[in-house]
Amino acid sequence: MQIKMKMPDLATTGADIRVVRWLVNPGQTITRGQPLLEVETEKAVSQVESVVHGSLKEILAVTDSRVSGGQVIAILETAAGPVGDSKPSHPASAPPASVKPEALQTRYKRGFLLALYERMVLIREFEERVKFLFLEGTMPGTIHQCQGQEATAVGVCAALKSDDWITSTFRGHGHALAKGLSPQELLDELFGAKTGCCQGRGGSMHVGNMDKGMVPGIAIVAGGIPLASGMGLAFKMQKRSQIVACFFGDGAVAEGAFHEGVNMASLWKLPVLFVCENNLYGASTHIGKVMVNTRISDRAAAYGFRGRTVDGNDVLAVFEATRQAAAECRTGHGPFLLELLTYRRTGHSRRDPCHYQPPDERESWFERDPLDRFRAWLEQSTDLSPDELAQARARVLTQIEAAVQHAKQAPLPEAEEIYVGVFGDPA
C-alpha cells in the first residue's frame, strides 16, 4: 500500500523547512524509525524518520527545496506487518546492581515485578507510537518525550499510595501512565478530543487527571514545586496522611521557584517528596555548565532536610528509595529530595536533534537502558519466563493500537465550549 509522507511540523515559527539531503534513494528498502532525510529549520539541522517498514517509492521534495509542515514530501510503499510492532531498539544489558538478586527474588511477588515491567513497556511503547503519530502529521501540537526515563516514573509511583498526589512537567506522559491514567484518555487528549483526560484543553504538555491524583502538567520550569509545597501544607493542616511527589528536571534547580518551594516545605515540615529527574541537560545545556556541585541531592542539606542520589535507571532502586522517603514524609519528618540519575533517549522536544550529546556519553547511557536492564534481570533472577515478558509487551501494543484508532475518531470540543472552566466564564 502506498502512503503519502508528510513533513512533520518541525519549525517552531511556521517558517519554511529546507530539505538538506535525502539519505536513501527511491527503490531502497526502509524500516520504521530509519532516518530518511536531513532538514534544516531556524533552530538546527535534524533528521526525519520513516513511519513505516517498506520502501521509498518517490521523492517529491528535492534537495535544497523549501517545504512547510504537513506538505507531502515523498511516497512510501508499506510492507506487511502490524503498525507499531517494532522490536526493542537496543539489546539487553547488565541487570540492576543496587540490590542483590537473591534478596529481590524473595522480597517481591512475581505479579508485582511483572506489573512494573509491563508499566515500563507501556510508557516506552506509548512514547514510540506518539513519536510516529507526530512524524505522520496526524497528531496536532508538539511533544516532549521521556524514552529512557521509564524507571523514574514507575519506581516512584509504585511506592505511593492510591490517594497520594503527584505534580508533573511538560514531559509528563510517563508520569501520567505510571500514576494510573489510561493510554486512551491520554491519546484522546493529545488529539484534542473532549474525551481526553483534560477534555482536549491541555494537550501533550498539560496532561493529568485530578480524580487519579495527578495535577495537570505545568509547562513552566519549576512551576510545580511551590504548588506541591502548597498541597503539602493543605495535607498537614487537614491532618491527612497523604503526601505529594513533585517531579521536576535538573534545569528547575536553577529557578527561584525551586528555592522558595523547598524552603517553605522545610520550614513547615511539609509532606512533600521532591523528585529531581536528573537527565544531565536543561534543554540543551549540560548540568556541569550551570552548577559547580552537580550532586543535586546536596541542595537539601542547605535547607535542613534530607536528600539522596539514586540510580534512576534501576526501577527497584527507585522504588525502595521512594518507599523509604515517603514513609519519612508521611510521619512528620518533613520533605525529602530524591535525585534520580537518568538519561532521555530523545531530544528536549521532537525538534531537537541532540547534537550537544557526545556520542560516547549516549552510548554509555544507552547500555544502561532501564527497560533492558530490568528485563535482563527478570529473565536471569526470577521465574518469569521470556514468553511471559513477550506476552506483556504484546498486550501493551494491542492496547495502544486500539487507543490510537479510537483517539483518531474521538469527538472534538465545540467552539462555544471555549469559555467552559475558564475563570471569569461569562456564562
What does this protein look like?
This protein is an alpha/beta fold. The protein folds into 2 domains: 2-78, Beta Barrel (OB fold (Dihydrolipoamide Acetyltransferase, E2P)), CATH 2.40.50; 101-409, Rossmann fold (3-Layer(aba) Sandwich), CATH 3.40.50.970. It has 12 helices and 15 strands. The protein has helices spanning 101-107, 110-136, 150-158, 173-179, 183-190, 224-237, 256-267, 299-302, 315-330, 359-366, 370-381, 386-409; strands at 2-6, 17-22, 29-30, 35-40, 45-49, 54-59, 66-67, 72-78, 165-167, 244-249, 272-278, 281-282, 285-286, 306-311, 336-341. It has a 5-stranded parallel beta sheet with strand order 9-10-11-15-14, sandwiched between helices. Strands 1-8-6-3 form a 4-stranded antiparallel beta sheet, with no helix packed on it. Helix 2 crosses helix 3, helix 2 (110-136) runs antiparallel to helix 4 (173-179) and helix 3 packs across helix 9 (315-330). The longest helix has 27 residues, at 110-136. It is globular and about 65 Å long. The termini are far apart.
Annotate the secondary structure layout.
Elements: E1 2-6, E2 17-22, E3 29-30, E4 35-40, E5 45-49, E6 54-59, E7 66-67, E8 72-78, H1 101-107, H2 110-136, H3 150-158, E9 165-167, H4 173-179, H5 183-190, H6 224-237, E10 244-249, H7 256-267, E11 272-278, E12 281-282, E13 285-286, H8 299-302, E14 306-311, H9 315-330, E15 336-341, H10 359-366, H11 370-381, H12 386-409
Parallel strand pairs: 9-10, 10-11, 11-15, 14-15
Antiparallel strand pairs: 1-8, 2-4, 2-7, 3-6, 4-5, 6-8, 12-13
Helix pairs in contact: 2-3, 2-4, 2-11, 2-12, 3-4, 3-9, 5-12, 6-7
